[in-house]
Design brief:
Shape: globular
Strand order of the largest sheet: 4-3-2-6-5-1-11-12
CATH superfamily: (Glycosyl)asparaginase
CATH architecture: 4-Layer Sandwich
Helix content: 40-55%
CATH class: Alpha Beta
Number of helices: 12
Strand content: 15-25%
Radius of gyration: 25 Å
Structural class: alpha+beta
């Protein structure tokens, strides 16, 4: 009887040991026998995409020196976001960092390089959204704030609100110890001349220049569409699979004081949702607000199952154009796919993925 019991016990122990060994072998194969590319894809899918607006100078006006300046600033912006993502940082921080670089450059219509209202002042708009929590923050028609995108993030993370404007936004900035700058900081000769030209020529707000005045080559005047569609933005996907988007602008040249465009409006310009994608737009804000461009791109992925590129092209090149809008958008989805589209002659833009290869473009698609 005792021998039978011992034999049964020994058999049971043997089976348990064998199962344990099989489990160990299976786990070893799962962890170490899969292709390196598969493991890397699972653990390291991240990317950041930026834009500096669809208001691109005509090729005939773009000198090699000026083009180089734009490319340098765009690369700096990408690098700021890429370093955060590559180091395991989150997408919100990457978007903020990338946009701050462009806000600090006089080349772009945001922050330091912001356009002027018809009264000769700078009023700034910005927003940011976290695709994981669906929290968002924005500021509109705010003055004196060096980096509106950072203030928008403070609205998202340090207040119960989504949008603050004007004096209320400035008061909040001071409470949060955001960096405040004098009016002179925001003065750039390029933007000032743009305002004076539009005032002198009586060019209507939001209006395109007449063909005879839009020929900068023969007239010797710079009437490029950079007057119209300048905005900066970024979208990112981090290693944890979280999306984020942000947008910042000085708004339209010669705009009425107090005018707020699409840049601080969640769903119009800025939108991020981990279920679908992250979007930042540029262009005629009033049209983006009517279309809710960012949310519309997301909805096409969510409800119609479109691929990212198809959704972006449908909304920008068809829907936006059909209501008289112009501009562009950048986007990234939850798998790390990247897409952009624009209606004009170009868009300052670029992206970088885990391979560290910077892709920066201005004109060609």
């Amino acid at each position: 009887m005792k021998r039978i019991f011992n034999r049964r016990t020994s058999g049971l122990v043997f089976k348990l040991v064998r199962m344990f060994i099989i489990c160990l072998v299976s786990l070893f194969c799962l962890l170490f026998c899969s292709k390196p590319s598969d493991r890397q894809k699972d653990a390291s899918t991240y990317a950041i995409v930026i834009h500096g607006g669809a208001g691109v100078r005509y090729r005939e006006e773009m000198t090699s020196e000026l083009e180089k300046e734009y490319l340098v600033e765009l690369e700096k912006s990408l690098m700021a976001g890429y370093e955060i993502l590559a180091g395991g940082g989150n997408s919100v921080a990457a978007v903020e960092a990338a946009i701050r670089v462009m806000e600090d450059s006089p080349l772009f219509n945001a922050g330091k390089g912001a356009s002027f209202t018809r009264d000769g002042i700078n009023e700034l708009d910005a927003s940011i959204m976290n695709g994981n929590t669906l929290r968002a923050g924005g500021v509109g028609a705010v003055r004196s704030v060096k980096n509106p995108i950072s203030l928008a993030r403070l609205v998202m993370e340090e207040s119960p609100h989504v949008l603050l404007v004007g004096q209320g936004a400035l008061a909040f900035a001071k409470e949060m110890n955001a960096e405040i700058m004098p009016d002179e900081y925001f003065f750039t000769e390029r933007q000032w001349n743009s305002l004076q030209r539009r005032l002198k020529e009586d060019i209507p707000y939001g209006g395109m220049l007449p063909p005879e005045k839009n020929d900068s080559v023969t007239s010797g005047k710079s009437y490029g569409n950079e007057d119209l569609y300048e905005t900066v933005g970024a979208v990112a996907l981090d290693k944890d699979g979280n999306l984020a988007a942000g947008t910042s602008t000085g708004g339209r040249v010669k705009k009425r004081p107090g005018r707020v465009g699409d840049s601080p409006i969640i769903g119009a310009s800025t939108y991020a949702n981990n279920k679908t994608c992250a979007v930042s737009t540029t262009g005629l804000g009033e049209k983006h607000m009517v279309l809710l461009t960012g949310k519309e791109i997301s909805s096409l992925l969510d409800h119609k199952g479109l691929q990212l590129k198809d959704a972006v092209h449908d909304v920008i090149l068809k829907q936006l154009v059909s209501i008289g809008g112009e501009g562009g958008a950048i986007s990234i989805d939850k798998q790390g796919n990247i897409a952009w589209a624009f209606t004009g002659n170009g868009m300052y833009r670029g992206f970088v993925k885990p391979d560290g290869k910077f892709v920066i473009k201005i004109y060609e698609d």
